[in-house]
Amino acid sequence: MTFSSELTHDHACCVTHALEAAQAICHTKNIRLTPMRQRIFELIWANHKAVGAYELLEILQREDPKAKPVTIYRALDFLLEAGLIHKVASLNAFVGCSSPEITHHSVLLICDNCHNAKEVPAQEVYEAICDISTHNAFLPQQLTLELHGYCKTCQT
Ligand SMILES: [Zn+2]
Ligand SMILES: [Zn+2]
Questions:
Q1: pLDDT tens across 81-133, in order?
Q2: Distance of CA 102 to CAs 114, 129, 142, Å?
Q3: Residue 40 near residue 72 (C-beta atoms within 8 A)
Q4: How far apart are the C-alpha atoms of 116 and 103, rounded to whole Å?
Q5: Whether 41 contacts 19, CB under 8 Å
Q6: Considering only CA atoms, which of 117, 75, 119 is closest in space to residue 100?
Q7: Residues paired with 85 in a beta bridge
Q8: Is 123 within 8 Å of 105 (Cβ atoms)?
Q9: What pLDDT, on the 0 to 100 scale, is given for residue 97?
Q10: Ligand 2 mean position to 80 CA, how many Å?
Q11: 38 by DSSP, 3-state: which?
Q12: Which residues keep their CB under 5 angstroms from ion ligand 2?
């Protein structure tokens, strides 16, 4: 499992790991990673930056001019549902999940300069917020933790 998103890392390893994990998960869940779904997954994993649906469409249309927005949206829905990618709500964009094989709560550290979105575990934070919610007799349905700032590389 890797949570690394530094510029110096061997990104091919991230992609290989992500693809293997995705194939294993689809096999276990008995769902199909069709060639189109896999291609969009690969495009999302091209780097650790959050990528929007229209950006994905533009890239895909260079390979297949007939690609339509609905193709992208259907694939994104599938990948989200399968837990293989995360939606970055504050950017209306997507990133590959770093550890799809385990149930996890994480926070996304989003760099406002290079748009790298690093996923780090934040189980304690989720528990603390759920406690607050319980104390207020509130029934939580969805919690998104996204922190904006500057990554190590962009701080200089
Ligand atoms: Zn994740
Ligand atoms: Zn950065």
A1: 999 999 999 999 999 998 888 888 999 999 999 999 999 999 999 999 999 99
A2: 28, 21, 18
A3: yes
A4: 23
A5: yes
A6: 119
A7: 96
A8: yes
A9: 93
A10: 25
A11: helix
A12: 111, 113-114, 151, 154
Number of CB atoms found within 10 A of residue 70's CB: 9
Q: How far is the CA of 66 from the centre of ligand 1 (A)?
A: 31
Helix intervals (H) in 45-108: 53-63, 69-81
CA of 33 from ligand 2 middle (Å) equals 31
**Dist CA 120 CA 128 (whole Å):** 16
Does the structure show a pLDDT above 50 at 2?
Answer: no
Residues β-bridged to residue 108: 119, 146
At which residue do the structure tokens 């890239």 appear? Answer: 59
CB 85 within 8 A of CB 41: yes
Alpha-carbon separation of residue 152 from 12, 78, 114 (angstroms) = 21, 33, 11
Q: What is the pTM of this model?
A: 0.86
